[in-house]
């Protein structure tokens, strides 16, 4: 077995369907494709009713569907849905998968009013077990 010289073998990126997260996912896909890394796609969620889930599925923009497929641009993608805080979800997956890089947008993930703008990349950058790439999306 030869030594794996790839700098990034596993890249974690978080998404919540917002514009800033979608830009971060696209950058992560491009990077993973360029370096031959696997992509771990983390989506954090709050417990919601089945009715609300059905409504949100109907309203999901079609252009986001590419981001949740098993492969995109030749990149192996594993979906990692997690309940709770988005930053914690990203950090947990990065630790569990022994990730080499976390990619986040520079704005906080939307969806819950208690998350301040920029709180996700801020928390991730302070507690990450690996390098962090913050994509400027604003």
Features:
4 helices; 34% helix; 138 residues; alpha/beta; 25% strand; 6-stranded mixed beta sheet
How would you describe the overall organization of this protein?
Helix content is 34%, strand content 25%. About 8% of the residues have low confidence. The chain is an alpha/beta fold and 138 residues long. It has four helices and six strands, in the order βαβαββαβαβ. The chain is globular and about 50 Å long. The relative contact order is 0.22. The longest helix is centred in the N-terminal third of the chain and has 17 residues. α3 runs parallel beside α4. A six-stranded mixed β-sheet has the order 3-4-2-1-5-6, with helices on both faces.
Distance between the termini: 44 Å
Number of helices: 4
Q: Report the major sheet.
A: 6 strands, mixed
Radius of gyration: 15 Å
Tell the overall outline: globular
What's the helical proportion of residues?
25-40%
Q: Strand sequence of the main sheet, in spatial order?
A: 3-4-2-1-5-6
Q: In what range is the share of β-strand residues? A: 15-25%
What is the gist of this entry?
The chain has 138 residues and is an alpha/beta fold. The protein contains 4 helices and 6 strands.
Topology:
Layout: E1 10-14, H1 19-35, E2 38-45, H2 50-59, E3 71-72, E4 75-83, H3 86-96, E5 101-105, H4 119-127, E6 131-135
Parallel strand pairs: 1-2, 1-5, 2-4, 5-6
Antiparallel strand pairs: 3-4
């Amino acid at each position: 077995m030869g030594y794996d010289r790839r700098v990034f073998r596993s890249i974690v990126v978080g998404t919540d369907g917002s514009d800033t997260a979608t830009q971060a996912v696209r950058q992560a896909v491009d990077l993973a494709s360029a370096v031959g890394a696997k992509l771990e796609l983390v989506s954090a969620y709050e417990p919601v009713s089945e009715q609300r889930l059905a409504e949100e599925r109907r309203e999901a923009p079609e252009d986001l569907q590419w981001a949740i497929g098993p492969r995109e641009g030749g990149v192996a993608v594993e979906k990692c849905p997690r309940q709770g805080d988005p930053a914690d979800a990203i950090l947990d997956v990065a630790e569990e998968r022994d990730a080499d890089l976390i990619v986040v947008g520079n704005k906080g993930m939307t969806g819950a009013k208690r998350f301040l703008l920029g709180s996700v990349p801020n928390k991730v950058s302070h507690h990450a077990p690996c390098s962090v790439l913050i994509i400027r999306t604003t």
